[in-house]
Amino acid sequence: MNTANSRSAAGVRIEIDDVQSGALRPRPVPYEGKFIFLRVDDRHAGRALLRRLLPVTSGGLPSADRSQDAWVAVAFTYQGLRALGVPQESLDSFPRAFREGMAARAELIGDVGESAPDHWEAPFGTGDVHIALSALASDAAQLGKKLEQARVAFEDTSGVQVIWQQEVRQLPTGRTTFGFRDGISHPNIEGVGLPGSNPQETPIKAGEFILGHPDETGSLPPMPTPDVLGRNGTYAAVRKAHTNVAAWRRFLRANSSSAEQEALLAAKMVGRWPSGAPLALAPEHDDPELAADPHRVNNFLYREHDDRGYRCPAGAHIRRTNPRDSTIIGDARMHRLIRRGTTYGPPLPEGVLEDDGAERGLVGVFLGTHLERQFEFIKAQWINDGNFIGYPGEKDAVAGHHGGTGTVTIPEKPVRRRLQNLPSFVVTRGGEYCFVPGLRALRWLAELEG
């Protein structure tokens, strides 16, 4: 499957081996990982670090042996590119959202209240995050090898400081801290050679995810200059989010009369059962056998099975973040993302309804070539407003910012159900906008002069 070049149906040449592995490859299952943020205090030291990291990075798609999956990806904030000495002309060619950074655009994307940058974990939003490393592997041994290679690179480079680290791993249950299977959906990208998870999804133009190729509009997405810097790169919104699992459980308990009703309400809010079985195909009860079948678990469309949301509500988390063919205001294909979700912290013990004070949640990486049209649009319009589904002001039941005043609508016959006073189940701990260059671009950055 790993080939140097692929061609789309339109004959577009995709240089897969120049695209960093962390951009297109789905994360391993199970997985172990680590995120590391670095600050560059000397541009020459930063470039020396990149030269040492180059042998650690890789491109291309997974090999047949997924058990050997392991990679390190390298990304840069706008301030990081400045710290490396990228010419101002090139810096000015990056899109506004990237140049401003996530903290400056927090209100736009719904990071307000307890999720506002004033409450973020340092060093998020401070301007000190320059280089972001992400390492993922199928097991601890593989991860250790990759991290050791990276550690040698940055520990041998004075003038570059590690300022933040976060370990992530799949929980023993294989699910998120909320108790739901994650990482099921992956877009079908034209010309890449990696099948999407939904066989009914028409391939999406490569330019939505890889710079230098036409996107869904038929045009090339704006690309930083020079060409060697921008081509085969992409953008990543990196987010750390705390999950209020105890509040989630209390809300379900308070609005249900039995354990079975709790499970159904949770599934209605998420759009899937804990196993991953979608409500669109399993509307009445969980179906682990369906969930375990990779050919069935994501093989559905809403208009065909459930346009009015009686199975999976229009406001359910997975339906809001990927409406597929739903009847909505706008074109869902213009806002598709690659999403990498990884879990940190211990699970809250089963049945516990009070918070234990532990930090737990998700580190999410959201990839695409249009930060504003993809990540920011989804956050502002689909997660934190319901106008596109006919519920103005109603936020994503799981991921929206509610602050104790949220509502969620669940279509039922003969009368729909509307739940009130939702707390915020997810609280932002921090975020950064990053540029993920191609491998040739990494070499260009490493060899900058001046």
UniProtKB/TrEMBL annotation:
Pfam families: DyP_N (PF21105). GO terms for molecular function: peroxidase activity. PROSITE patterns: DYP_PEROXIDASE. Its cofactor is heme b. Residues 69-158 form the DyP dimeric alpha+beta barrel domain. Keywords: Iron, Metal-binding, Oxidoreductase, Peroxidase. InterPro entries: Dimeric_a/b-barrel, DyP_N, Dyp_peroxidase. Belongs to the DyP-type peroxidase family. This is Dyp-type peroxidase. The lineage of its organism: Bacteria, Bacillati, Actinomycetota, Actinomycetes, Kitasatosporales.
